[in-house]
């Protein structure tokens, strides 16, 4: 609809500003070199070494390049592969709503049962409800931190509650989707990498696409203990075998000259500017602790359901957003919509000008 009505697209989660010229220069040079054949299945060896160093620098975790790291065709393939490898027929997988839509499909394809558990209305987890959903059939819990679509991050108390649940259910595996790990603001997110009680039974999912604004490259990576990674690699081998070789080599070289510590500051400026632009609108802005998404309430503007409101936002006002009800199994509608602020300032300014007129 955004394309059909020539609307400003703040719906999908992709940046519209240029990629770092240092990275594109690296790609241009590598295109002339001998990096065009298959890499080893787990990843381009220099990149695996750089990922291990990145995880160690960021979280003080030592990950073994040979056995605990896997480069994937984006985070989504990493999520799919992990679930396909570890979830079996009639297992149950707990998914916290609202959630990214790629969690449920691989569970269903395993002939397993997705168990959707809603977060509280302020998007904090209700650990009593989550624990009550755990059974002898529960094989996996999926968490997303920082959280899409809400921008929330889990606290130390949340992790302590999660650890108690997993202590009671020792067979449950944790899948931690941390693709926005470097896009956090006042508080840095707590990674499963730092939780010694969790990481030996967890898969951590990361994304170079999100971190370096190169979503179309579709390069991510998994970190997991060897006993889990061994099973994940069995699926990965027959799903994609290996990931784009030029992209892997380029990211490997780029990691030598870029600091991930600057990414949060870059997006915090975007967040603060977008929030400032919308401060005189009739939308109520919810807290945004991480990611490049801003959730707003339109309750002061309309009583429409969020899907209809988003359609009218496009057709009458020329701005595209995502209705939050689409992230719930039951279509729960709290009159909330999601904007993506990973856009250049001119785009944000024009979008805000239109939104402030509503």
UniProtKB/TrEMBL annotation:
Transmembrane segments: none annotated. GO terms for molecular function: transaminase activity. CDD domains: AAT_like. InterPro entries: Aminotransferase_I/II_large, Kynurenine-oxoglutarate_AT, PyrdxlP-dep_Trfase, PyrdxlP-dep_Trfase_major, PyrdxlP-dep_Trfase_small. Signal peptide: none annotated. Its cofactor is pyridoxal 5'-phosphate. It holds the Pfam family Aminotran_1_2. Keywords: Aminotransferase, Pyridoxal phosphate, Transferase. This is Aminotransferase. The keyword Transferase applies. Residues 7-355 form the Aminotransferase class I/classII large domain.
């Amino acid at each position: 609809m955004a394309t059909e009505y020539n609307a400003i697209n703040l719906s999908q989660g992709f940046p519209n500003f240029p990629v770092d010229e240092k990275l594109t220069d690296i790609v241009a040079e590598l295109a002339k070199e001998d990096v065009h054949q298959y890499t080893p299945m787990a990843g381009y060896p220099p990149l695996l070494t750089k990922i291990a160093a990145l995880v160690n620098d960021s979280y003080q975790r030592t990950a073994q390049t040979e056995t605990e790291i896997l480069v994937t065709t984006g985070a989504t393939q990493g999520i799919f592969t992990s679930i396909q490898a570890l979830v079996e027929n009639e297992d149950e997988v707990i998914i916290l709503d609202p959630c990214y839509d790629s969690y449920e499909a691989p569970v269903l394809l395993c002939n397993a049962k997705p168990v959707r558990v809603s977060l509280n209305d302020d998007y904090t987890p209700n650990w009593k409800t989550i624990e009550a959903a755990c059974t002898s059939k529960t094989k996996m819990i999926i968490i997303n931190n920082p959280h899409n679509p809400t921008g929330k991050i889990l606290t130390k108390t949340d992790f302590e509650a999660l650890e108690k649940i997993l202590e009671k259910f020792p067979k449950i595996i944790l899948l931690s989707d941390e693709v926005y790990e470097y896009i956090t603001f006042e508080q840095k997110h707590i990674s499963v990498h730092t939780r010694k009680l969790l990481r030996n039974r967890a898969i951590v999912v990361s994304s170079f696409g999100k971190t370096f604004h190169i979503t179309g490259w579709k390069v991510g990576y998994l970190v997991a203990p060897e006993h889990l990674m061994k099973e994940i690699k069995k699926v990965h081998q027959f799903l994609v075998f290996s990931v784009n070789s030029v992209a892997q080599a380029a990211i490997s070289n780029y990691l030598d000259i870029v600091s991930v510590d600057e990414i949060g500051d870059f997006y915090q400026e975007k967040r603060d500017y977008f929030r400032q632009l919308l401060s005189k609108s009739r939308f109520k802005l919810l807290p945004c602790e991480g990611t490049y998404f801003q959730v707003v309430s339109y309750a002061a503007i309309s009583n429409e359901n969020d899907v209809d409101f988003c359609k009218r936002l496009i057709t009458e006002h020329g701005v595209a957003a995502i209705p939050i009800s689409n992230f719930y199994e039951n279509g729960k509608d709290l009159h909330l919509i999601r904007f993506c602020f990973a856009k250049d300032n001119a785009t944000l300014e024009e979008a805000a000008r239109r939104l402030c007129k509503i």
